[in-house]
Amino acid sequence: MHIPTLLTALTLLPFSLSIPLISRRQSPCFVIGSTPLPGETSQIANALASTVTCDASVRPLQNIPDTISGGVRFSSINFEDSDLLPLDFALTTFTTPSPPSSASLTLFTNRLNTYLAQEAAVRSIGGNLAIKAPKFFLAFQVARIKTSQGIAITDPGQTVEHLLGKVLKNAGRVSQVTKDEVTRLAGDL
């Protein structure tokens, strides 16, 4: 009598133990593809998993669910909805006052989070990475705001100077005027 009960318990045990493990291994809601993410992108995606939510009923970029951070929806600031080149769009859309110390760090961080999540999603499907120009520009703006507000940036990859190089490297075919304006902003702290 006890042997069938024991066998049933042993048969069900792996299932009951695996449920928590499965939930911990689930991908963030925005990582919808199967292409492996680069290490840094994977770390960012995992860090954003508890901050960024998804709305699968809206698919603004390459059939990826809309990402939302702090009430900011990627679909409301999607560079592809503009006729401008990605960096020109970012430069005109994600403006700060001069100096940028009075800009909302929370708003810019939430905007950046939605772009970081969308980039991870694009990479997971092996999609077009035109998103990099506005994403780096948003990271650049966050760095400018932090620097202007006196917030120490300890990650050398997140400094204004480093991100200026990333923005210019990923600028695409924008005009020299656009590049010069981004370079000017680097000094407006």
UniProtKB/TrEMBL annotation:
Residues of the DUF7143 domain: 31-187
InterPro entries in the record: DUF7143 (IPR055567)
Signal sequence coordinates: 1-18
Keyword check for NADP: no
Keyword entries, A-Z: Signal
Pfam families noted in UniProt: DUF7143
Protein name: DUF7143 domain-containing protein
Originating organism: Orbilia blumenaviensis
